[in-house]
Design brief:
Belongs to the heat shock protein 90 family. One of its GO terms (molecular function) is ATP-dependent protein folding chaperone. The protein has 20 helices and 22 strands. By secondary structure, it is α+β, with helices and mostly antiparallel strands.
Length: 602
Amino acid sequence: MVAEKGTISINTENIFPIIKKFLYSDHEIFLRELVSNAVDATQKLKKLASMGEFNGELGDLTIKVSVDKEAKTITISDKGIGMSADDIKKYINQIAFSGAKEFLEKYKDTPDTNQIIGQFGLGFYSAFMVSENVEIISKSFRDDAPARWICDGSTEFEITEAEKAERGTDIILHVAADSEEFLDNFRISGILEKYAKFLPVEIEFDGKVINNPNPIWTKSPSELTDEDYKAFYKELYPFGEEPLFWIHLNVDYPFNLTGVLYFPKIKKDFQLNRDKVQLYSRQVFITDDVKDVVPEFLQMLHGVIDSPDIPLNVSRSYLQADGNVKKINSHITKKVADKLQEIFRNDRTGFEEKWESVGVFVKYGIVSDDKFYDRAKEFILLKNVESKHFTLDEYREKVQAIQTNKDESVVFLYANDVNQQDAFIASAKKREYDVLVMDSPLDAHFINALESKLEKTTFKRVDSDSIDKLIDKGLNLESVLSDDEKKKVEELFKEVAGANTIQLESLPADEVPVTIVQPEFMRRWKDMQRISGQGDMFGSMPMPNNVVVNSNHSLIAKLLKTEDADAQKALTKQLYDLGLLAQGMLTGADLTKFVERTVAAL
């Protein structure tokens, strides 16, 4: 073959700076692109062999990546379809003409064509991000003469004959001085671990195969056991705790989607952790930033999603606008809801045991996606202080007879700190009321969402008012105090309670003498501010509380009968501090003084 020189067919002299600066912002992507192209070449050969268009021995198809620090080269070698000089001119010199795309078009009606990763277009040219020049030595499966192509990143190239005994292609990168970090074996190993971990052809580096070519999401669920799924989870997250359960995705119409999603155990103070859902396109890793592809409330799931309908190099705005991405997002929501409903119906006890973790997803889903409530309302669970679980319908049926107020609304009482609110829970139980536990960071938003969905239902925190005001049935006890006595009590408590509001109520004599409460709307608003990360708009400024004084309690009568002014003030202070103590508001030196006064009075 006569040596040939020519000019690469492109529309601008500036294509390489564009590739280097804009098309691939992350330079390590070059290895993903070149190894993926090598996989393409291998898959094409296997395809042709299966169709009888290649009758030779396939042999060992392992793709090899090697680094030569002295020569400052990185080589990617495959034993795939290979290229002749004419192929190189067609597929390499005509930038953005994708050989994989042409191959797919030609064989689109035959089985398993989607095995071709392909459609990278400019993928090969990502090599110039790290190279001062790039060399191709290739021999076609058709036994054409081997060819060598070399280019220094300008628009000029050279093709000559080459010596190569075996079919396939070697891509040799002569690494540029500013990219010598990629001559480090550890660096290359890390990139391959990230992008090539599940490529469908064996990849060898540093003497060992570094990938699993047949991950479980490429198999049928009927072939797999629970142990297979657990083992794959360990492969993805070696230090992760065993998942609760999983969902195997397998869709081929109206879009292509495979994968396995795992439900992890989640703590109450959940955070989005580093173990995220990984997004692949034909087993090539794309990203673990799956916004828009996976619904927001499911981004704490773990596992893998693989879809050829999501291109490898896309902008965020593309994902938001893409029709297939929206369909995938909706499908994942449906599959998750179906799986949760299946577990709830088939194993209610097991579902309740998992609720602490599962409930985070369900609550987040209801808060962030109106449609999810309709899918989830059957298996939304509420837990009471006795640790019994109820569906929404079950709980309404349990409490509506006794917890319906004068406006015919059913009141769901809840505590967000069972220990701290113990005295208030005890007051509710005296009335035979039931109290829910709502102590998740999401619960303030969750409660709001439920109130907007449930008819004539309201949630009230058990310490947000006196018990008879929380469920106001319109029945008022007579006060044993005269108007003058009420005025005197109010004046005494104003002196010790500062800016707080004094609220005298005629409560049963066996209720506590003083209760410190903060209105439900204020508590819930502050909780929602905290979980949204907005902080408190009032900063550290103390919020005024309501001091509810039980005018029918014997200690209030004793207070009025105390003639010594100092003793009367001291008793008022002690009663007020008792209310603070019940709310966990009495700390430090104030708590010490309270204990000392109590001991002295005994």
